[in-house]
Amino acid sequence: MHARQPCDELGNDLPPNTPPLPRAGEQPLDDYSLYGSRAEFELADFLYRKEQMSGKKIDKLMEIWATFSASNDPDSNTPSPPPFANAADVYNTIDSTELGDIPWQAFLVKYNGTLPDGTPPTSMTNSYEVWFRDPLKFLEDQIGNPDFNGEMDYAAYQVYGPDRKRRFKDMMCRQIGHGSSQYVVQLFHSSLAHILSSLKPWMIKPRITRCANRHFRWVIYGFGPYIADYPEQALLSCIVSGWCAKCTAKSTDLDGDPSAIPRSHVHTQELRHLIDDDLKVLWDGWGIIGDVIPFTAHFPQANIHELPSSDLLHQIIKGTFKDHLVTWVGEYLEVVHGTARANEILADIDRQIAAVPLFPGLRRFPEGRGFKQWTGDDSKALMKVYLPAIAGHVPSQLVRAISAFLEYCYLVRQSEITEDTLAAIDNALARFHAIREIFITSGVREDFLLPRQHSLVHYRHLIQDFGAPNGLCSSITESKHIKAVKEPWRRSNCNQPLGQMLLVNQHLDKLAAARVDFQTRGMLKGSGHPVLVPAIPCHDQGEVDDVEEDQGMTSLGDVQLAK
Known about the structure:
20 helices, mainly alpha, 563 residues, 3-stranded mixed β-sheet
C-alpha cells in the first residue's frame, strides 16, 4: 500500500509531518456546552438513551428532584433547581446540540403523468412524504468523527500474502486498474449507500410509471439501498424484475446465456437508439424499462449496474439456502413419497436436528426447523446441522448438491479471500449447478430462472471489486433495525409516528456525537465527582409501570419541508 500525500481543502500538497488542523468549534476542556456540567450530560444521556424514560416520567422525576432540593435546604430562599426543568427542557437541550446536527428534511411526491381510464390506483393519486438527510453532510460527519481517526482507508490498495497471491478483505482492498476515477466514484457511492441503507424506509423516493405492458410499478431512484435484494436492485437500475441488473442474461436463460455481457449506461443508450425507443422490444428482448432513466445515467464516472454489491443475507443465506433448497427438499419428499410419508420423514429430520448435542458454535433447535419466523442467524445455524440430518432420507445426488452449495457459501463468507479461494468458489459453483439438476429430473422444479441463484455467478467479480462479502452483507444494517426503527416507534405516541421516530434518532445521534467529543477531549475519564444525597426509601410492591403515551416528542422541530 502506497502512502498518500496529505493535502489541504483545495487539494494542494502539504509539507511532510504537517499536523492536522484543530476540529471546527473545538472547545476548552471544561466546556460541556449546553449541558453545563458532566453530570447534566450524563443525566440527559441516561434518561434519554439508556433508560428511554417517557416524557411524563421525566417531568415527575424533575418535580420530585425540585421538591427534594427544597426540603433538603428549607432555610434557603433559592434552593438548587433540578438539572432540567422538565422533559421538554431535556429534549430542547439535546436538540440544540450542534455536534451531529444533520437535520432531516421532507418533501412530497406525487404521480403527475396521464391517468388511465376508469378508476386509477391509489398509488397514482396519493401524495407520499419523503424524509432525507443531506448525504454529503452525513458522510462528512462520519469522516470527521474522531472515533474513526486512523481507522479509514481513503484509497484502494492491494494486499499480497507470503505466496505473492492477492488477498481480498475489506472494500478498499480490491483490484486496481480498470479506470481508477470511475471505480473511486463507484466505491464512494457504494460506501455511502451502505451507511444509509439502514435508513432505507426513509430514503426511498417513490415514483409510479406506466409500463409498456400497461402494468404499473414502483421505481426506486435517488440515494437508495445499493446493498439490497434483487427486486430492489432491478428497480434501482430500471431493469425488469426477473432479469439480472448486472448482465444481459435473458430471464429465460439466466445461467446459460453465452451472449450475456455486463450492463452499462452506454450499452443501454445504444440499444435505445438502435431500437428507436421501442418500449416493448426493450422490455421483452433486453429486460430494460425504456420509459424510466436511472438517476445515475448522467453521472460521468458511475455505472449503476456495477454499484449493487453482493448480499450474503438475502441472496445466499436466506435466499438460496432457506427459501430455495430447504423448501425444495420438502417438496422433493412430497413428490416422491406423497404427503403423509413426506411429513413422517420431515418429522424424523426435525428429530435429528433437535438431537444435536451441545457444542461450542452449534445452536440447538429443540423443535427442529419448524419455527415460524426465520432470521439470518437461524439460517446460518441450521446450515451447520442440516446436511447430516437429511442424509439417508434423500438421494445422495441431492445431498451432494446441497453440500456443493454449502461449500460455496462458506467460501464466500470468509473474511479474507485469496486467489486460491476464488478458484475454489468457481469449482464449488460449477458442481452445484451440475448436481442441482436433480430438482428438475425429479419434478420439483421446471427451471432455475431465479435471480438470487443467478447472483452467485457474479460473486467472483464482486469480490474483486468490493472485497470480501462479509463486510458488505445487509445483515450489518439489518442488525440496527431494532435500534433505528422498533425502539423509536415504541417511544412515539403511534399517531403519525415517522416524524417522532426521526426525531428520536436525531437526538441519539447528537448525544453520541457529544459523547465522542467529550471523550476525545478527556472530559469523561474516571467516575466524575460523587454526589452525596440521603437514601430514598424504596417501596417495592411489585408494581408494573403503566404504558404511557409520550407527548413530549410530537414534532421534528428543525425539519425543512421542501416545496
